């Protein structure tokens, strides 16, 4: 990597990426945990240890369909010299009766059925003639064969899924197997996405030259869903200072996190998001040492204060049981400030900003520090350039099997078509201005 002498100086007035992210994470507290039915808990972060109330399996049972036997009774059995035993009972899975196995007899048993008292082995049905009154057994079984013993999977009181785990299907399975109908989890964050810009039109509607279709709000809502959130896309807000703040305040009622795009560039008088939010005082606008995504705004935003004797809309809303139940959230204390991200309007900038800053913030809402993107090291298939003093996130195609990443051509922050070809972001450090093919780079794997 090549480092020019001016690189450090150029970065000085910019906030480093890591410092900006650290500030965001420090400002966010996790959402209060809530008890949720197991069917709704997939993808959420556990806020308690799930332990085994009973051993797993809870009772000794058969691992196969076959015959419960004493090993001595079948020790001499072979293909040439089978052993025949009387079948004195049949136990199906779910049968709660108490059976005892007398020497010299067999009990027909199904997979998962409780073992008759005294069972030493189960002879699989495949080793027999499958008889119902008498069974011909053609092979000996060792002690313990095809038996599942109580507690061999987990002992009573053992932690099955640790607090902080993001619940995947296998965790749901073991919680259910331990008899848990509900679990304490962090609620699914509700993310509201709002795009601003007088040039924006709804996809599906005609555009005239000078207008473009709004892609950011759809992209970010999808990215929020991908990160495990409930996402609400709000219609376009024009570059009109009188409309921006009310539109944001209006949406706060259903947001655990809010994202706007557009209107935060470095000087334009049409940058109305910045102008409107500056009035609040709680949102900080910064130049972050990155490309794309330099203009960033972040802060905690509280809903507007109610007039005396009047409830805020937020309070009224928070009593809506349907909405809260859908989010799986308990009613939080009213007027809790909500993290607000104002992302730049260029689609690639907005996308990269989401992955670098918003995704970890969504994790912080759930007390999960593992939601950031996976980083791998890969060899560059070709050269690339990067501005001095900024960390670059370049679109690339990663071949994980070969450990090779190919930078795409068309790295402009408006080039959403190139973005659609990428499966990775190549990270070029602040101090590097170029890298050559064959060098190894950090690569963020896109979800
Ligand atoms: P801004 O951040 O508002 O200065 O916008 C920067 C660039 O991004 C301009 O070319 C905008 O037209 C474009 N842009 C802003 N918002 C969106 C959006 N929601 N979808 C697609 N492009 C956008
Ligand atoms: Mg704009």
Poorly predicted runs: 6-11, 312-323
Cα-to-Cα separation, first versus last residue: 27 Å
The dominant shape is elongated
* Overall helicity: 10-25%
Count of individual beta strands: 27
Whole-number average pLDDT?
92
Biggest sheet features? 6 strands, mixed
Strand order of the largest sheet: 15-12-16-20-19-17
As a whole number of angstroms, the C-alpha radius of gyration is 31 Å
State the helix count: 11
Q: Helix/strand/pairing class, anyone?
A: alpha/beta
Q: Strand fraction band?
A: 25-35%
Small molecules bound in the structure, each named once: adenosine monophosphate, magnesium ion
What does this protein structure show overall?
The chain has 447 residues and is α/β, with parallel strands linked by helices. It is 21% helix and 27% strand. It is built from eleven helices and 27 strands. It has helices at residues 7-10, 17-27, 71-74, 169-177, 216-226, 241-252, 272-278, 313-318, 321-327, 347-365, 416-419; strands at residues 34-37, 50-51, 61-62, 66-69, 83-91, 106-109, 121-124, 134-137, 147-148, 159-161, 182-185, 190-196, 200-201, 212-213, 230-237, 257-261, 283-287, 290-291, 295-301, 338-343, 375-380, 384-385, 391-399, 404-407, 424-428, 434-435, 440-445. A six-stranded mixed β-sheet has the order 15-12-16-20-19-17, sandwiched between helices. A five-stranded mixed β-sheet has the order 7-4-6-5-8. A five-stranded mixed beta barrel has the order 21-24-23-25-27. α2 (17-27) packs across α10 (347-365) and α5 runs parallel beside α10. The longest helix is centred in the last third of the chain and has 19 residues, at 347-365. The model is unreliable at 6-11 and 312-323 (pLDDT under 50). Bound molecules: adenosine monophosphate and magnesium ion. Adenosine monophosphate is lined by residues 195, 197, 199-200, 212, 214-217, 261-265, 344-347, 414.
């Amino acid at each position: 990597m090549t480092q020019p002498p001016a690189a450090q100086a150029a970065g000085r007035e910019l906030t480093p990426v890591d410092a900006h992210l650290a500030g965001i994470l420090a400002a966010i507290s996790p959402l209060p945990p809530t008890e949720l039915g197991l069917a709704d808990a997939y993808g959420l972060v556990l806020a308690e240890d799930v332990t085994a109330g009973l051993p797993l399996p809870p009772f000794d049972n058969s691992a196969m369909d076959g015959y419960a036997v004493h090993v001595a009774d079948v020790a001499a059995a072979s293909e040439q010299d089978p052993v025949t035993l009387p079948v004195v009972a049949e136990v199906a899975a779910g049968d709660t009766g108490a059976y005892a196995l007398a020497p010299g007899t067999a009990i027909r048993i199904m997979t998962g059925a409780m073992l008759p008292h005294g069972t030493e082995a189960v002879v699989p049905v495949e080793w027999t003639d499958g008889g119902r009154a008498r069974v011909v057994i053609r092979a000996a079984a060792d002690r313990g064969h095809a038996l599942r013993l109580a507690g061999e999977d987990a002992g009573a009181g053992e932690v099955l899924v640790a607090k902080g785990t993001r619940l995947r299907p296998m965790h749901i399975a073991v919680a259910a197997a331990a008899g848990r109908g509900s679990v304490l989890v962090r609620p699914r964050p509700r993310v509201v996405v709002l795009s601003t810009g007088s040039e924006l039109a709804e996809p599906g509607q005609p555009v005239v030259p000078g207008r473009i279709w709004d892609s950011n709000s759809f992209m970010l809502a999808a990215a929020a869903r991908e990160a495990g959130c409930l996402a609400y896309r709000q219609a376009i807000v024009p570059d009109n200072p009188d409309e921006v703040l009310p539109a944001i305040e209006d949406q706060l009622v259903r947001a655990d996190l809010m994202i706007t795009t557009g209107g935060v560039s470095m000087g334009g008088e049409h940058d109305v998001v910045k102008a409107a939010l500056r009035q609040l005082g709680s949102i900080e606008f910064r130049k972050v040492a990155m490309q794309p995504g330099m203009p960033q705004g972040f802060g905690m935003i509280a809903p507007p204060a109610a007039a005396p004797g009047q409830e805020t809309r937020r309070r009224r809303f928070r009593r809506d049981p349907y909405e809260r139940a859908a989010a799986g959230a308990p009613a939080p204390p009213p007027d809790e400030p909500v993290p607000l991200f104002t992302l730049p309007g260029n689609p690639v900038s907005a996308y990269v900003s989401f992955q670098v800053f918003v995704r970890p913030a969504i994790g912080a809402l759930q007390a999960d520090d593992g939601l950031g993107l996976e980083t791998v090291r890969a060899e560059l298939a070709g050269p690339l350039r990067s501005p001095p003093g900024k960390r670059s996130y370049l679109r690339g195609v990663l071949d994980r099997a070969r450990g090779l990443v190919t930078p795409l051509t068309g790295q402009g922050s408006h080039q959403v078509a190139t973005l659609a070809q990428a499966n990775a972001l190549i990270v070029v450090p602040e101090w590097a201005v170029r890298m050559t093919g064959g060098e190894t780079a950090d690569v963020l794997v896109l979800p």
